[in-house]
Amino acid sequence: MLILPAIDLYNGKCVRLHRGDFDSQVVYSDSPAEVARSCGAAGLRFLHVVDLEGAKDGRSRNWDGIASILSVEGIGAQVGGGIRSADDIQKLLDAGARRVVVGSVAVQAPQLVARWIHKFGAERIVVALDVRNGSIAVAGWQEQTDLPPIILVRKMVDLGVRSFLCTDIDRDGTLSGPNVELYEGMHSAFPSIELIGSGGIASLEDIEASERAGCSAVVVGKALYKGRLSLDLLSTYQSSNKRA
User: Fold this and answer.
1) Alpha helix (H) ranges present in the chain?
2) Residues tagged active-site
3) Where are the domains of the chain?
4) CA pair distance 157, 171, nearest whole angstrom
């Protein structure tokens, strides 16, 4: 089980939201690079980085913060938020991102994702499944569609996508536990995909439950910043886990 510490960027700072509400943000650090460095020092060297303003506005707003994270020696990351073109992807990969996460484009222009898979390879692209009340949300979770996530996954798999980040928005930032039923449904319908769970993780038991539900990786955010989980504990767990 791979554990990805989350770094969410807003106005150049590391913040956390509650259920995707931008008005609820709490600033945890003014230095994204220092947060990344702390994760790497503990042995957690693959991060999940999101440009929150980029996700909302449809174009990168926190490039300096992203670049500072990617410049930290030994750190790898998947980066999302505001990615709308092949140039956006190339810029991130050139800066050192291992993978990019795309969300709104997968819903609004799926053939673009197919072209990106062809150009960059499936190993470089992760599609975000941002779910609220059983349907996909886009534009930084600010706009709701009536598209069930399983339909989006089927379309993306047909286009060559292999990796998906599945977030229950109503659990994100709540420390209320993961939506294992959502993960189980995805894994049952598409057992060959890489499923990354996100939202609600508060304990090692939550991580174990996500793994049993079919996730090969989880994103941990607020539990770290609130002290419910430590970097050292997560690193030890990841190292000892047979699927790490």
Assistant:
1) 32-42, 52-57, 63-70, 86-95, 104-108, 110-120, 149-158, 180-189, 204-212, 222-225, 231-240
2) 8, 130
3) 2-240
4) 26
Please list the ranges in the chain whose pLDDT falls under 50. Answer: 243-244
CA pair distance 131, 109, nearest whole angstrom: 18
1 touches 211 (CB < 8 A): yes
Decide if 122 contacts 161 (C-beta within 8 A).
yes
- pLDDT tens for each residue of 178-198: 999 999 999 999 999 999 999
Cα(107)–Cα(242) distance, rounded to whole angstroms? Answer: 35
Query: pTM score, two decimals?
Result: 0.94
**In contact, 106 and 115? CB cutoff 8 Å:** no
Tokens of 106: 């997968």
The answer to whether the CB of 195 falls within 8 A of the CB of 168 is no
Half-sphere exposure of 9 (CA within 13 A, CB side): 28
CATH class of this structure's domain 2-240: alpha beta
